[in-house]
Amino acid sequence: MKIDINNITMIYPSGKKALRDISVSLESPGFIGILGPNGAGKTTLMKLLIAGLIPTKGEIALDGKPLLSQETRLKAQLGYLPQSFGLYDELTVWQFLDYMAALKGVKDKKAVDDVISRTSLTEQRKTRIRRLSGGQRQRVGIAQALLGDPQLIILDEPTVGLDPEERVKFRNIFSEMAQNKIVLLSTHIVEDVQAVCSRVLVIYDGLILYDGSPSALISDAASHVGTYISQAGDSVPEGCHVVSKVNVSEGIRCRIVAEELPKIAESAEPTLEDAYLYCIHKEGRQ
Ligand SMILES: Nc1ncnc2c1ncn2[C@@H]1O[C@H](COP(=O)(O)OP(=O)(O)OP(=O)(O)O)[C@@H](O)[C@H]1O
Ligand SMILES: [Mg+2]
């Protein structure tokens, strides 16, 4: 499967320009993470890909044919977890997934049990959804997206609100997925991208700032990450963005990203999180 996003601009009826002339190709196999701050355009891009929104300008092609002419095929091959979704609280996990399988036209009777076991919900299969924890509910959302073995899986912030143990479970679900799909995942949690994605898109203010491997993004930030000790009340040196502050015996250890590190800073090895922040702050962006 191949999806070509060609010069897409999305302007909402309110006049808000959510995506600005972006072009990108997604090909199977591909585990692709989308990173970007709130309001960057991640959900908008995903809604365009599921044909839930029609772009103001540009075209999306599925295997070379216009996406909007391929809706039946798209729906048959799509698993989608929206950023906010309602579950039927009075149904049990199994009943809900059985209902979703029927809506999706999944005929395989084992499909529901299969996604329940893949998302480690076997113990909760007879539990009513209203009694689940936030992380378990999120796993039910992921489970419904996996029903019917879709070739295109789009997960909008699947790990939001999950504790570290739940996030590990989520990563395991990913690593066990067949490798012949396109999986697109948006998140604010950089570690999740590092753990599961071979490609990362950084979106900022409707533009794609970076498209490549996580390791190349990290290389781009080399010599732009540093640490120094400051005292309470000191201002941040010009052009620097603080990534973290830790109290230590000598004062406050600040970790910064900057186009040019100030003399007081010692250079540090970038992490993916540093690299992402450097990417969205460089060239005077906020
Ligand atoms: N239905 C809508 N009508 C008008 N503006 C919208 C609509 N949906 C989103 N926007 C605006 O478009 C921009 C992009 O929104 P989008 O939801 O795609 O961002 P996002 O990257 O998913 O953010 P978040 O991380 O908060 O989920 C934002 O400025 C948002 O306010
Ligand atoms: Mg969003």
SSE order and pairing:
Elements: E1 2-11, E2 17-27, E3 30-35, H1 42-49, E4 57-62, E5 65-66, H2 71-77, E6 78-81, H3 93-104, H4 111-118, H5 134-146, E7 152-156, H6 164-175, E8 182-187, H7 190-196, E9 199-204, E10 207-212, H8 214-220, E11 225-230, E12 240-248, E13 251-258, E14 266-267, H9 272-281
Parallel strand pairs: 3-8, 3-9, 6-7, 7-8
Antiparallel strand pairs: 1-2, 1-4, 4-5, 9-10, 11-13, 11-14, 12-13
Helix pairs in contact: 3-4, 8-9
Bound molecules: adenosine-5'-triphosphate and magnesium ion.
Q: What tags apply to this protein structure?
A:
four-stranded antiparallel β-sheet; 30% strand; binds magnesium ion; alpha/beta; 286 residues
Question: Could you characterize what this model shows?
Answer:
It is a single chain. The chain contains nine helices and 14 strands. With 286 residues, the protein is an alpha/beta fold. It has two domains: 163 residues, P-loop containing nucleotide triphosphate hydrolases (Rossmann fold, 3-Layer(aba) Sandwich); 47 residues, no CATH class. The longest helix is centred in the middle third of the chain and has 13 residues.
